[in-house]
Inverse folding.
């Protein structure tokens, strides 16, 4: 039954299938597509505040209308009539407050965590009951009616993976208990839909064999073998091949413990591809390899630590350096390398349960962490304590998220990258990364463009450095553009850039966009940092003295000293060297030139009525 907004009864929100809201037994009308998409976003991050910018990105991505904020307010107002007091407003965003009794996703997570806890404690009957109840909450593909949205498609895929992991745990308990018959149809369907999940295939084969379908089990293996060979050029895993031989020999595989047949976990090697044309950073590479290989650690040295933080402004190559050094020292870590991004592709931070679950899987423990933070972190630290991993935590947005993820003890080493200084993080070896030197920039251009086109680059690079700086992001984007603009020399392109008010849109090639990188960086700033960042755009230069800073920040509610500290923590400004001189005064502060240009562009856009 479909009802109107005024229908009475307790609200229930469901996204494990089509998006629906129920008031008692009445399903409510949810309005137009973008209004439903907004509700879906709030439900996917229930009890978490989503900023206005995040929600605008969900609704319009890169095609934002000038009235985006006003439209968002209209949709929120309409949803409040439906969701009543469940939607809350803070100065910087919105949240949907719900309990596990009101949200099917929260209920699923609660049941899954309780079931896995019961399984760890040896209560298989209770575990099967709890996990089975979680599985039965699934009605269809999550958000199946909103898959035209990139956000909804990503969330649907993420939630489906979580469901499949819980389903596999539950089905394994059911088959081990001799209850395979009732699972055959669904197991077969899921194994067909997700052919790369060998655990589903193993469960399907075992269930078929358990109910007397030995030939069908062998045929299931053969179909999987052909698929893997055709798609990946590989053979099935040793575990699956052993299961095939056991069924072929007539052994009672259905009564064997399936957890003994789970695919053998390979040593993780999760570092992204090293950049073949990595140049420069010789001193930093030497320092980091020494730290990670143990050469520079010694008892009693206060600088000795198992955590190193690489920080610096947007685009200076923090991740590239961490990955490059990680590959150099990879063989020294017996249990492998784990790489985890701490942010979503849109620049928003990932929740700690999601990150911790990924870390645990990478470290060889495929479980959903307990919902209670203390228990979840205890599980992680206990598991990693006796193992030797290189952990790369990429794109940290705060100190608290790093503190909770660091191993408590053991031989593992951690590299953290962040656009922030993370000044409050204790017992950390710090490495501040700056822009390329002209020689490093020239070396990269030579590698990409070849010596003939990069010859005589000094004058052009000096011009670009004065305008936009020489961050690796700028130099690499510049080189990529010139590989397409074969009719232009480096000098001519530098002159062309100099004639433009801002190169943020011009410096874009393929999926690499300077403008997008700075947009994501700006989105991650606190409200105070954003206000101060925009104010600095009014300054005529990227370098300024104390008086210039005071003038720019005049009118902000916080003291100038507090704001300056916030800006330095976010790597928006830095204390300049004493020998840097402006026209008539010693420079005390500087911004990355491209950051200053972005701040100026934001200020112009705001003055013209832009977002």
């Amino acid at each position: 039954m479909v009802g109107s907004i005024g229908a009475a009864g307790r609200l229930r929100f469901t996204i494990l299938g089509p998006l629906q809201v129920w008031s008692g037994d009445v399903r409510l009308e949810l309005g137009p597509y973008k209004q439903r998409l907004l509700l879906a976003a709030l439900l996917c991050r229930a009890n978490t505040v989503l900023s206005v910018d995040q929600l605008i990105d969900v609704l319009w991505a890169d095609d934002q209308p000038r009235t985006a904020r006003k439209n968002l307010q209209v949709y929120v107002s309409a949803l409040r009539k439906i969701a009543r007091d469940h939607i809350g407003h803070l100065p910087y965003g919105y949240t949907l407050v719900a309990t596990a009794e009101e949200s099917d996703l929260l209920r699923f997570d609660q049941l899954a965590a309780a079931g896995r806890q019961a399984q760890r404690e040896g209560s298989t009957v209770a575990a099967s009951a709890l996990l089975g109840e979680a599985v039965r909450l699934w009605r269809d593909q999550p958000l199946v009616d909103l898959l035209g949205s990139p956000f909804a498609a990503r969330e649907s895929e993420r939630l489906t993976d979580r469901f499949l992991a819980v389903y596999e745990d539950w089905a394994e308990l059911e088959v081990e208990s001799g209850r395979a018959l009732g699972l055959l149809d669904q197991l077969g369907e899921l194994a067909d839909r997700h052919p790369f999940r060998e655990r589903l295939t193993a469960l399907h084969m075992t269930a078929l064999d358990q109910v007397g379908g030995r030939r069908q089990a062998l045929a299931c293996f053969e179909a999987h073998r052909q698929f893997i060979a055709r798609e990946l050029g590989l053979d099935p895993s040793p575990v699956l091949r052993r299961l095939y031989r056991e069924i072929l020999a007539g052994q009672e595989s259905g009564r064997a413990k399936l957890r003994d047949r789970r695919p053998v976990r390979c040593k993780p090697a999760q570092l992204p591809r090293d950049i073949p044309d990595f140049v420069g950073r010789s001193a930093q590479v030497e320092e980091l390899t020494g730290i990670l290989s143990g050469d520079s650690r010694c008892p009693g040295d206060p600088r000795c630590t198992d955590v190193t933080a690489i920080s610096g402004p947007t685009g200076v190559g923090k991740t590239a350096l961490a990955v490059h050094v990680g590959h150099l020292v990879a063989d020294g870590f017996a249990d492998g390398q784990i790489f985890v991004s701490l942010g979503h592709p849109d620049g928003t931070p990932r929740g700690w349960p999601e990150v911790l679950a990924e870390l645990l899987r990478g470290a060889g423990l495929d479980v959903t962490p307990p919902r209670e933070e203390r228990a979840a972190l205890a599980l992680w630290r206990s598991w990693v304590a006796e193992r030797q991993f290189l952990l790369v935590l990429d794109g940290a947005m705060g100190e608290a998220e790093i503190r909770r993820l660091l191993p408590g003890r053991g031989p593992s080493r951690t590299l953290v990258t962040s656009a922030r200084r993370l000044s409050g993080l204790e017992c950390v070896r710090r490495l501040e990364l700056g822009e390329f030197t002209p020689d490093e920039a020239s070396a990269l251009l030579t590698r990409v463009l070849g010596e003939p086109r990069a010859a005589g680059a000094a004058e052009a690079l000096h011009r670009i450095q004065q305008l936009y700086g020489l961050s690796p992001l700028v130099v690499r984007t510049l080189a990529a553009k010139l590989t397409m603009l074969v009719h232009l020399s480096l000098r001519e392109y530098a002159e062309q850039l100099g004639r433009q008010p801002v190169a943020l849109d011009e410096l874009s090639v393929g999926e690499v966009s300077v403008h997008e990188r700075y947009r994501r960086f700006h989105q991650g700033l606190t409200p105070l940092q954003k206000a101060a960042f925009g104010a600095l755009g009014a300054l005529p230069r990227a370098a300024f003295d104390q008086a210039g800073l005071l003038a720019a920040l005049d009118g902000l509610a916080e003291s100038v000293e507090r704001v300056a500290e916030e800006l330095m923590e976010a790597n928006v400004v830095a204390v300049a060297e004493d020998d840097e001189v402006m026209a008539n005064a010693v420079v005390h502060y500087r911004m990355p030139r491209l950051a200053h240009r972005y701040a100026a562009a934001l200020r112009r856009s705001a003055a013209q009525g832009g977002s």
